[in-house]
Amino acid sequence: MVPRKPVSVHVLQGTFRDDAHKEGLTGHKLTEVPPAPEDLHKDAWQHWRECSQWLISLGVFTETELPAVRVWAETMREIKLAESDMETGGRYQTSLSTQIESMRPCVKRHDILTDRLVRLFRKFGFTPVDRVGIDASPSGDHASKVSSRKRGG
Predict the structure, then answer these.
(1) pLDDT score for 57
(2) Structural domain of residue 101, as residue ranges?
């Protein structure tokens, strides 16, 4: 189950409302890349760092996003494995008995993982369609700007 969209994402998307988001920005805002979880596969560590640095640069990285960053890092690792398998073995395989060409399982796996990644990006508003209307200026208190705009101030 995917967790609720963090309030920091509502701030980025311009959908932050004082009445609906009484809890405000939850979690401690992170300014440095946290250490990767101990049980995270070592091949996913680089993806953990990349995603963390990206969220820090956007100013929306809090402790609340750590589980999603883990999913992103693991998904990216699996995508790289599927891509490597496609490079070495090709995208199609031919059945020895029927001589019918079919897509290899790694291609289907790659497509499923890519879809998972896109869904995760949508949750954070990181796809082009989801970014429409986002004012993600890194300086200033964006939440107060959005609140004052909604009140007509």
Answers:
(1) 87
(2) 29-131
- The DSSP secondary structure of 85-98, one letter per residue, reads HHHHH-SEEE-TTT
In this structure, is residue 127 part of a structural domain? Answer: yes
> Could you report the per-residue pLDDT of 85-140, keeping only the tens digit for each?
888 887 777 777 777 778 888 888 888 898 888 888 777 666 666 655 444 434 44
- pLDDT for 119: 84
Exposed, middle or buried by CB within 10 Å (0-12, 13-18, 19+), for 11?
Answer: buried
Distance CA 99, CA 96 (A): 5
Task: Quote the number of domains for the chain.
Answer: 1
What spatial distance separates the first Cα and last Cα of the chain, rounded to whole Å? 38
Q: Which two tokens stand for residue 12?
A: 């980025």
Nearest by Cα to 35 from 56, 47, 49: 49
